[in-house]
Amino acid sequence: MTDVLTVRDLRAGYDGGTVLDGVDLTVPEGGVVALLGRNGAGKTTLVHTVMGLLKPYSGSIRVGDRDLAGAAPHTVARSGVAIVPQGRRVFAPLTVEENLRLAAGRDRAGRAWTVRRVYELMPRLAERRGHRGDQLSGGEQQMLAIGRALLRNPRLLLLDEPSDGLAPAVVDDVAVLLEGLRGEGIAALLVEQDLHLAFRLAGEVAVMRKGQIVHRAPTSEFRADRARAHALLGVG
Ligand SMILES: Nc1ncnc2c1ncn2[C@@H]1O[C@H](COP(=O)(O)OP(=O)(O)OP(=O)(O)O)[C@@H](O)[C@H]1O
């Protein structure tokens, strides 16, 4: 299978300090890889570096056949990468409809995702189309953030802790939504502390520690190896 994302020997950090210390990671076309690791391991830093929000010191980031290390976020976006940021970051003063229209730009013919299709996938958003971003529940904001990302028609989604701050029943709604995207051919790199959610959605697991990927396994294998999960993540 070909890889949509190939990261090689990536080094990055803040103000000359090192956070990513030689990251090697691939995400297969259409596959979901869960990026696990303790707080401070560098997961968000990796996602931001792939998106072009942080310039790497060295290394390569390939999306398809384009090398995007150091490219600006709009260039990365145009190559088919979309981010659902931690904390959701929807535009609070704008309505659901305005948030979606802004992300869609001009609906061009032949695009897989349109505002209408996002509403079909998430009827709750359609009901709330006139509500402002800050009038939505946490789960609705998360759905809006996912809808905005889909409107970029991505081949790779970067999801940074989609369960963060959501009640368990709402996490389940988000899981059902993301499961519904299987078969759309969208690959995902999923940063997630909620192991149940990560295991449910991802075919493979990659574990980050001190700025490096220290373990990679199919989800079924990782789940079965509780001793290793405990050693790597501090959970049972
Ligand atoms: N904007 C920033 N400026 C300086 N240092 C930062 C910045 N963002 C993160 N760091 C530092 O980089 C390291 C990695 O943080 P990062 O957020 O990437 O980890 P993480 O694995 O995503 O953790 P978490 O699960 O807590 O979000 C931490 O030591 C953090 O303090």
UniProtKB/TrEMBL annotation:
The lineage of its organism: Bacteria, Bacillati, Actinomycetota, Actinomycetes, Streptosporangiales. Keywords: Amino-acid transport, ATP-binding, Nucleotide-binding, Transport. This is ABC transporter ATP-binding protein. It comes from the Bacteria. It comes from Nonomuraea rosea. Belongs to the ABC transporter superfamily. One of its GO terms (molecular function) is ATP binding. Coiled coil: none annotated. InterPro entries: AAA+_ATPase (IPR003593), ABC_transporter-like_ATP-bd (IPR003439), ABC_transporter-like_CS (IPR017871), BCAA_Transport_ATP-bd_LivF (IPR052156), P-loop_NTPase (IPR027417). Residues 5-235 form the ABC transporter domain. SMART domains: AAA. SUPFAM superfamilies: P-loop containing nucleoside triphosphate hydrolases (SSF52540).
